[in-house]
Amino acid sequence: MKLFPFILLFLATISSFAQPVVYQSFETDSAAEPRGGMPSLSTFLQTNLRKPIEAEAQGIGGRVVLSGIVEPDGRLSDINVVQSLRPDCDREALRVFSRFQAWRPAYKNGKAVRQFVSIPVTFKASKPFPYVNGNRISYYDANQNLLPDSSDLARYKQLTPTDSNGLPNGNILVYQLKRQVWKEQATLPFVRKRSDLYSRYGKAIYRIGVVQQNNQWQGRVADVDETGALVRQSFYNNGERVGYQLDYYSNGLVAQRSDDANGLYVFNAWHPNGQIKQIWTADKPKPGTPKSPDQVMAYWDSTGRQLVTEGNGSGSFTELVQSKLDSTRQTLFIEEGTYAGGLREGRWTGRYADGSYVYEEQYEKGICQTGKARTAGQDTVRYTQREQQPEFAGGMQGLGQFLASTLRYPPDAQRAHVQGQVMISFVVCTDGTLCDYEVVKPLHPAIDQEALRVVKAMNGRWKPGAQRGQNVRVQYRMPINFALE
């Protein structure tokens, strides 16, 4: 019995000696590094960092230095703050860095080994702004131009309630300066609106943000799922999307970033482990104009192996999608084929790992020539267009004739000399009927109602959109012009 403590001590000593050695980079034959190199990690960090609102308001810039251990399997462990900036920035740096799990391990004597790494995470300095009691305060001159501060030129003041990540979470109050006193002038409502879309995980999406008096989204707008998790973040100016857009995984990492560049959208996508996945471009959609094929410039698998370089390459390409057997589950979508000059070429195949869907297509310079697809429990469908946009019966010419014969200029709008464009949003259903009408860019109450009446009169006159031979619901935006002769 007296030997028992000694045995425990002996076992503990052996256990402590059994811990693998952690090397410094100079002690290895090849040091650990991010797949894609440091530029890849830097892009990942800057894309994912959400500067805390109080640090942003103060214009804080600086860096947090973090340490960790790259394990032999490429995972990152034991992450700590080595050099602090401030607590809220430290927490954000830890959140993002800990989710990057795409490392090439260090090697010594031909074996993967553990290695210490030290990485600086930079928060860029920003222009400071007033932030009081959870409200971002902005000042504008008499022409409603944004001012850097509350100078003598200020005639309007705007209070925007925001959360810790800078997202709006309440009504915006607008004040006007009258006789040296700020008087409340207007309220821009904070809106939570059910979307027609679903997240990549099959959950309902709600759009939250601020709507102007003309019913247009303004500023930073977020799409969240039914649990409140961030799905997408965009920026709007008077209802039109501007700047970049971010899509998110359920772990909070950015899945995809799209940037508006000279009539094109430029996309960068990442795997859930932080590994860069794909870079490609796509044309902006234009009503009545066939969509050009996307151009893929580069693609990497989740282990960092590059399959497409400068638009050329072939291999197996994977993506998590919603199962066609069970909308509450995800499955792996596996596609195989070749890219030439950024475009699909030759034979392409695709299948859902759970067996719920399969397709085969032939391509020439990015254009689908023939294809066939089958959903579990349904017959095989054949097609010559991978995607087909909804179309008014008779095409654009028929649509023009319909508008000319149906549209009426409201008399009160004529008398007021109102002219311009109204934008109507609606959904073309799988049977060609229309639903979910909305005036997304109003002009004048009477004109808005007339545009809405005309669009509703189109019900049943549309050919539905299709994807790989199957009719699908498609949201459509139609501009309707009113011009005085």
From TrEMBL:
SUPFAM superfamilies according to UniProt: Histone H3 K4-specific methyltransferase SET7/9 N-terminal domain, TolA/TonB C-terminal domain
Compartments (UniProt record): Cell inner membrane
GO CC aspect terms: plasma membrane protein complex
One BP annotation, GO: transmembrane transport
Signal peptide (residue range): 1-18
Matches recorded under InterPro entries: TonB-dependent_transducer, TonB/TolA_C, TonB_C
Membrane topology: Single-pass membrane protein
Keyword Lipid biosynthesis: no
Matching NCBIfam families: tonB_Cterm
Identification of the protein by name: TonB family protein
